[in-house]
Amino acid sequence: MSNKKIGYEIIIPENSKLVSIPMSKELNEYFKIQNKKNYIYYLKKFIGGDKNYEVAFDALKDCMKKALPKDRKESCKYCLGLSEDKGDKLCERYNSQMMLTYFVAGNEFLRIVFKNKFLQTDKVILQNLTINFFDCLHFIENQGKMYFDVDKMCRYCLHAGFLSLSNMFSSSSSLNNIKVINESLNSLNDEELENRIHNKEDGNYIDIQKSFFENKRRYYKDNIYIEKEENEVKKIESIKRIVNNKRPTRTDIAYYCYYTSQTKTLEINSAFPSDRAWVEIGEIFNKNPKNIQKAYNLISHNKAERLKKTKANNIKYVINNILNDNKEALNLAKDELKLVELNS
What we know:
This protein is mainly alpha-helical. It contains 14 helices and three strands. It has three domains: 5-151, no CATH class; 172-241; 243-343, no CATH class. The N and C termini lie far apart (93 Å).
């Protein structure tokens, strides 16, 4: 047995045989209760029910039978008719040692699954993983031996865990995903450092896990940038859709610039106010930037001018057509519209 492969061999001294010791009725009932939810119970549950398990186990038994030594009958007292004691059956020894390996492998599989909660979040992924569990049981032909490839099973579990995490990430925000990823990477880095300090072998495939999380972090960081740029484009397109020959006027745009700049929600690439900013705003609204700047200077530095009764129509237009979902700027515009109406 090693940390990569698990297998058992029953060695029987010469002139010895396997003996089964019958249990009392009380002890038998006790073990029935204790074993109600054993490894077979969970294998059946994970693989999708009794029928699916029977198909997998029948295939396993067929492989066990094929692995038996072909010449066993020639030296088997039971098969030769020299004994009626089933303890003398050679195949019982081989079957017992393979079933012992199966028992240990099944419990090791459960330990891995229950240790990693992400493996239990998706029934389909868990079902496929359980099918792969049987694929990790290997047989040594003509020796009646079976071993469990732990390394292969762990890699299947890693893949299943990554699929479950990817599914979880797909239903969450990019920002929240990065938070989860950073916490996972921090934990893996701590574990890696501890291994180096104590000169311990990495048994958790840290490099593979870190590679997965680092790739996901790059992906979701790019996603955040793309989402931000898409929102910028949508806002600009929304503004452009309302532009026509009459509205918005340069005064409408001046009020829009005033309310958004005051609330620090004016979303343009250039620093505001600046010549480049006015050119950019002019391009967005398809208007002369110098005319917009003149109108802005007139209302931004003169509150009385900005709150004139004649400007109520401009403020209403900005509220109803340009500010849209800009809550901060919208509230400021509505407050000023009330002042204009009070002054009327």
